[in-house]
Every structure is written in C-alpha cells, then in structure tokens.
C-alpha cells in the first residue's frame, strides 16, 4: 500500500497550518509510519519537529528543494523519532518556482520525488505556505493509490473566510488537470477563542456554504499548544493539554479518509 497524502493549506497566513500538520504527524506516528514534508520556506514545521531554528545553515542543501529538483526525496529525509520522518525546508525553498522554470520541470516533480518512498509510509503529511504558489499546488498534485486529501485551515476570521473559495478553486483546477482523485477532507476550525461571539455565526455560515465539509472538532487557542514551538514534544509536561483537541481531530481525519463516501469535494455538495 502507498501512503495517504494529506496537505494542510490556506492562503491566509497564521491559520495554524504548520502547528496542525506537525501535531497531526506526531499523533499519527504513535501507531503508523509518517513522513512529514515541509513545503514552506519559513521552515516552521521543520523547527517545530526538530527544535532547530538555524535552519538556513543546518539544513543547507539538504531540503525539500533539493529533493524536488533531483526528483528523489530519499537522500534528504531525516528521522525525528520512531515512525516519524521529515523532509525539512529552509529559506532557499523560495527559489523553487524559478528553478522549476529554468529546468523546464513541472508540477509533478514533488510526486516524482516522493514515489521512491511512497510505500514506506502510511501517511505523508504536507505543510504549505500562505500562498497558492507552486509550493501549494505541487502537494495537491501528488497522487497515491490510497488517496490524496486537503485539509483547509480556518481561523474563524473574515480574511480566512474569503481565502476558502480561492483554495477550493485551485483544488478544482488540480482535480481537472493533474489529480482527479484529490479530495477535500474538510475545513478545520483552529485558533478559536472560546469566548469570541462570532464563533457560532461563523460555524453556521461555513456549514451553509460548504455542507458537510467542516470537521466537528474545533481546535481552541491554547497557550500550551503555542508553547510546543518552544518546549517541543519530548519531556513536555503539558503535552497532553497541548494535543488535547488534536486527538479528536486525528480520529475524525482517519475516519473521513477511511470512508470512500466522505471523500467529498466541492462538486459533490
Ligand atoms: N491551537 C493553538 N493555540 C494557540 N496558539 C496556536 C495554536 N495553533 C497555532 N498557534 C500559534 O499561532 C501562530 C500561527 O500558527 P502557525 O505558524 O502554525 O500558522 P501557519 O498557518 O502555519 O502560519 P503561516 O501561514 O505563516 O505558515 C504560531 O505562533 C503558533 O504557535
Ligand atoms: Mg506555517
């Protein structure tokens, strides 16, 4: 079996893409084999999982950029912990679009890079930057026999609300041109302030606009979750609290991915 592909995305910045893809990878790796891929030149997922912030030097020429340009991820994958591997990134990933053009490479290059390792993992989880650039398009183009999914991150703001249809538009485009099997696993509410009075109307609006797409789990804003970037996952006394909401989300994600009928996309609403 090949890995299930899950890409976390939204063009609005700061909606918890890196945090959510990192925590999801960590939780899945407790029972299954996970590769997590950092497609963002900010390298926040890389830092979150490795505790390394000097990514420019430490991962120099050892990143997703090289993996894509050589169309082989294998030499660049590092082990984070049992069952959890990472394809790291750093600032140089910014030159990806220019390099692809120079070398006349296309959006399939990430899929080609992942092909040699596709059977080694149960899940490939991909973090993307706040942009609908090649960095986001390439992950959505990755096909797998076990399915290819997008999780749309939503922080409850108007800015993110208006970013959702733009993301769905590129999902449609990718569906038509590169990956007919790509499905939206769902819209994940994250960074939600328990007391914000706009939460309920926003939920209703999303449910009306995108029936069945919203994950039931709501990821609340929590200081313990934010501090993961500081304290890491190992020997972290507040880990349970930091991951609390995500445990439910991961169960829901697995459930949606395992049921073919829940491979919903815009056209099926
Ligand atoms: N549930 C949460 N509770 C509290 N803080 C959170 C939570 N999720 C994420 N954060 C914090 O919010 C900020 C934005 O999160 P994150 O960097 O994961 O978003 P992003 O969508 O990846 O951002 P970008 O668009 O820049 O890539 C970070 O400081 C992160 O630590
Ligand atoms: Mg990020």
Can you put this structure into words, describing what you see?
By secondary structure, the chain is of the alpha/beta class. The chain has a single domain (4-255), classed as Rossmann fold. The chain has helices spanning 17-28, 44-50, 55-58, 64-69, 96-102, 109-114, 134-141, 158-177, 199-209, 223-226, 228-231, 239-258; strands spanning 4-9, 34-38, 78-81, 84-87, 123-127, 148-154, 182-192, 214-220. Strands 3-4-2-5-1-6-7-8 form an eight-stranded mixed β-sheet, with helices on both faces. Helix 1 packs across helix 2 (44-50) and helix 1 packs across helix 12. The longest helix is centred in the middle third of the chain and has 20 residues, at 158-177. The protein is globular and about 50 Å long. The protein starts with a strand and ends in an 11-residue tail after the last helix. The model has no long low-confidence stretch (mean pLDDT 95). Bound molecules: adenosine-5'-triphosphate and magnesium ion. Residues 13-19, 40, 42, 44, 129-130, 153, 190-191, 219, 221-222, 225-226, 229 line the site of adenosine-5'-triphosphate.
